[in-house]
Amino acid sequence: MDILLFRAGHNTAVVLVGCVVLGVSAAVVGAFAVLRKRALMADALGHATLPGIALGFMISAAFNGTGRETAALLLGATATGVVGVLAVQGILATRRLREDAAIGAVLSVFFGVGAVLLSRIQALPGADAGGLTHLILGQTASMRSGDAWLIAGAGAFAVAVVALLYKELRLVAFDQEFARVQGWPVAGLDLAVMTLVTVVTVVGLQAVGLILVVALLIIPPAAARFWTDRLGVMLVVAGVIGGASGAGGAAVSAVSRNLPIGALIVLFAGAIFLAGLLAAPRRGIVASVVRTARLRLLVASHHRLRELLGGPSDPLGAHERLADLALRRRGLAASTPAGLVLTEAGRRRALELEHAERWWIDRFGTTPGSGPPPSADAVEHILSPGLIDRLDGRSRGGDRP
User: Fold this and answer.
1) Sign (positive/negative) of CA torsion 363, 368, 369, 373?
2) CATH no., domain 287-395
3) In angstroms, how far is CA 241 from the centroid of its own chain?
4) Hey, where are the domains in the chain?
């Protein structure tokens, strides 16, 4: 708790602030990459930074002998990251490859080039490649106040750009063809999003590394999508999830020094994603299972109501027994020595169901040689008497409901 309250020392507070700001900004920017189906592009960008890191190291080593100048490494990562994005865009412009193939090709080629350069660095006389490890796998122990301020500034810049272009980015994310017809520069807005992704990726290298930084761009907005259908709310929820993941990973890493902070941040984000996948009230697996079970019970109850119109009968299977229980609880049926019988309310509801099916058949006819249309049984469960009256009124040219 002292860690989260900034009572664990200056260095720990610096790391905590840097990770929280990185988590928030990556989540907000990544939301538009996810909505534009650019998640793989973010992955390609992360891997495309590896050659830049290696080149920055080699150039820095040529001038000062160590090669571990953070500025040179980040500038190199930015340069090759941008080149990677432009390479994907250029391949897509030829219309000869699908996006996933173009991204896969660029990702693998750039990562291969980076691996070759890293091997070359190991052979350089006097070069110390230890400075590269924390940019590849993530290491915040060496994070200084200046690094935290860099992350904070870049994160604030990214969030500010998203806020300024919110309306345009929202339009492109959900209806790019309409945006193009309206004259909006769709390609330019896409490039703006990927530029922000590049900025967040590069400043996040020191915290979580180039391999895992893509997780901060994708997992929080994907998790937020389980909880809301509104973009504004999604951005807020994604930011909270990203910030909480950064704080949780930094706190655990401060207590357990041997655990890598990048992996911890991603694991926290993954745990929140899993919780949303299971327990979100509308999109979660549990809610989906409950809705499906309720729908099946409703359909079984309706079928049982119509069956009981012919007289008392006993249930034949588990579904019918559950349906009978539901009908009794709703006061639509009652148990008698002869079996289950409909109450007056149950009889009215059963007649309404039959009327709905007959109305549908009358309106849409029958399939020649095969009886009622297949949709007749399904539609009776959603057509209420009031809805039928409104539809009849509209078909006769009456007032709109």
Assistant:
1) negative
2) 1.10.10.10
3) 12
4) 10-277, 287-395
Top CATH class of 10-277 equals mainly alpha
CA distance 25 to 246: 11
Cα(155)–Cα(165) distance, integer angstroms: 16
**Cα separations (Å) of 178 from 34, 166, 181, 186, 194?**
19, 16, 5, 10, 21
Q: How far apart are the first and last CA of the chain?
A: 58
> What's the CA gap between 11 and 143, in Å, rounded?
8
What residue has token string 């959603």?
Answer: 382
- Residue 321's Cα: distance from chain center in Å? 40
What does the block give as tokens for 101?
């193939």
Residues paired with 154 in a beta bridge: none
Q: Which residues lie closer than 8 Å to 57 by C-beta, 6 or more apart?
A: 67, 68, 72, 73, 76, 121, 127, 129, 131, 132
- Cβ burial of 125 (10 Å; 0-12, 13-18, 19+) is exposed
Using DSSP's 3-state secondary structure scheme, residue 333 falls into strand
What are 348-400's pLDDT values in tens digits?
Answer: 888 888 888 787 777 766 555 555 555 566 666 777 777 777 766 665 554 44
Which helix (H) or strand (E) is 334 found in, with range? Answer: strand 333-336
Q: How buried is 165 (Cβ within 10 angstroms: 0-12 exposed, 13-18 middle, 19+ buried)?
A: middle
Q: What is the pLDDT of residues 61-91, one digit of tens each?
A: 777 656 667 778 788 888 898 888 888 888 8
Instruction: Report residue 149 as tokens.
Output: 């301020």
DSSP category for residue 97: S
Pairing of strands 333-336, 339-342: antiparallel
- Exposure string (b/e) for 213-243, b if CB count within 10 Å is 16 or more? bbbbbbbbbbbbbbbbeebeebbbbbbbbbb
Q: What is the pTM of this model?
A: 0.78
The two three-digit tokens of residue 219, written as one number: 């997992």
Segment-wise mean pLDDT, segments of 10 residues, the chain, 401 residues: 51 78 91 85 81 86 68 84 85 81 87 86 65 65 71 88 91 86 85 86 78 86 92 94 89 76 87 94 91 87 83 72 86 84 87 81 62 61 72 57 43
Assign 314 to helix, strand or coil. coil
